[in-house]
Amino acid sequence: MMKTTCPAYRPLALAILAAAALAAVPLIGPRAVVQDLFGILCLLVLALNWNMLAGFAGLVSVGQQAFVGIGAYTMFAAVILFGLDPLAGVLLGGLVAMALAVPVACFVFRLNGAYFAIGTWVAAEIARLGLGQWKALGGGTGTSLPKGTTRDMLGVGPVKEWLGVSSAAASDIVLYWLALGLVLATLGVSWAFLRSRTGLGLQAIRDNAMAARSVGIDPVRLKALVFLLAAFGTGLCGGLLFIQITRITPDAAFSLLDWTAFVLFVVVIGGIGTLPGPIVGVVVFYALERLLSDYGSAYLIVLGLFGIAVMLFARRGLWGSLSGRTGLELLPLGHRAPAAAIRP
Amino acid sequence: MFSLDTILQGLLLGGLYALFAAGLSLVFGIMRLVNLAHGDLIVLGAYLILGLGTVTGLNPFAAALIAMPLMFALGWLLQTRLLNRVLGEDILPPLLVTFGLSVVIQNGLLAAFTADSRKLAAGPVESASVAVGPVHMGVMPVMTLATAVAVILALNLLFYRTALGRAFRATSDDAVTAQLMGIRPQRIFAMATGIALVVAAIAALYLGTRANFDPSIGPARLLYAFEAVIIGGLGSLWGTLAGGVVIGLAQTMGAAVNPEWQILAGHVAFVLILMVRPRGLFPRAID
Description:
The structure holds 2 protein chains of 2 kinds.
Chain A: H1 9-28, H2 31-56, H3 65-80, H4 86-108, H5 114-131, E1 143-144, H6 156-163, H7 167-195, H8 197-207, H9 209-214, H10 219-245, E2 247-248, H11 250-253, H12 256-270, H13 276-292, H14 298-313, H15 317-326, H16 339-342
Antiparallel strand pairs in A: 1-2
Chain B: H1 4-31, H2 38-56, H3 60-86, H4 92-113, E1 129-132, E2 135-138, H5 139-161, H6 163-173, H7 175-180, H8 185-210, H9 218-232, H10 237-257, H11 262-276
Antiparallel strand pairs in B: 1-2
Helix pairs in contact in B: 1-5, 1-8, 1-9, 1-10, 2-3, 2-4, 2-8, 2-9, 3-8, 5-6, 5-8, 6-8, 9-10, 9-11, 10-11
């Protein structure tokens, strides 16, 4: 078979190596590095999900903070009101986010293009203001996780014994590994999905909706599927993030800047509509943050200008331009043409 | 159920939102550009009026007159240098560029003026009120609504009675055919954005005299403005006024029931109207 000689396996080996190296970081790296990388990995999960929406399904949402917030609030509710393990709360958060994505979709899918973007933003604001009314979780001023929640979290005990670290460090490590797992799962699922028949249909809709419909692809059903899956991934990520943050307020959980604006810039700078794009973007984002962290708001100004420059001069982003120029492909989404078709 | 006073206040608040939305409606109607930086441009306008007032010692109303041509020039430059390059079939590039612009303006203002909240001092008119039958109305809110109506009237005259307005409508309906008639869409777009920013300067005047402002308040105002535009319907300026009034009324009625529900009620009204009429109340153009 042709496929066994496909060079796609080399990038796969590279990806496994990179994942293994990242997984080993907590064994050698200091706790601050683990915490930093946790934030980066979560940003990457959000970016991968938004990229599926905007880059592949053509759904330009500026309201993904809705699902981060819903995931986070569900996790808090699970811990504080029902005494569940925070990790069970995270899973629940993803499911609730997906469930609530159904009514949101019923509303925003009636709107197209620009109206869709504004509609998602309004939905997120409604969620923020609505949850601000939930007095059991602190209302508008928010609340904190009870002391010792993360100490008793699933997996913290074994990690603490195995590595001989404090409970707090062990919980950071558990969260870090979960975030890494979530990144890998999101990448893997996205890759498999985009190469499947359904995923090809999705990309066909993006490239030419009329032609795609004429061969029997149902755009609404496919887009709704992506919207729900992205809500699930985003909700899971929201729950994880707020275990580490330990304190929740409606404004922080539904922050447009933190959970959507940064994500947008990461995806656009890296290369929208490609799978490695968000990874490149998140690395650039992190480097910029490190370089400019002492200058306060200058950092955001540079990020904004960078995003604008990419849209003006390299619309496919850093990764898209690089792979366009060199022909380099990691995680390729295309299929090889059948042998009969390429024979002269 | 709701007092006359509540309804009147809602109507007047709607005037302010319509003023925020008028420039946005113009730009959105003509070139389908979703300008996510419009709210921040209004805030920028407020700082410009504040700065001009401080330097020249003029009253904010006079300072706004100087700010208007400056804002027109800014709009022209913005459109010709930046936005014209990203307009096209794909809505993502303009969306992202204006989003980037929003972040840049917000943080630029933050670096220049700090996060302290400011206010434009308009003098005794701020606290003046007039009695209409059983209710008292603030002079400033009444002036805001009157200005909103005047601005929309003026824009409508421009739109339907002048050669420029004809070019606006032609470009809005079909930019390619308009080009065949000797219209240069890029110039038309630049005029439109210039005019939109003049309206933004007027909105900034009322934003700054009626309440405190700081660099971060743009996006929330932008969202109300967008709701007004969408409720009104694409390309309809009177619709935008109606949309502003709907949001204003919903907010004051929500606040009358429970003060915490003010903003929420506006958003819920938006969702309900769009569920019934996805293209808004009075759409003129098709998207």
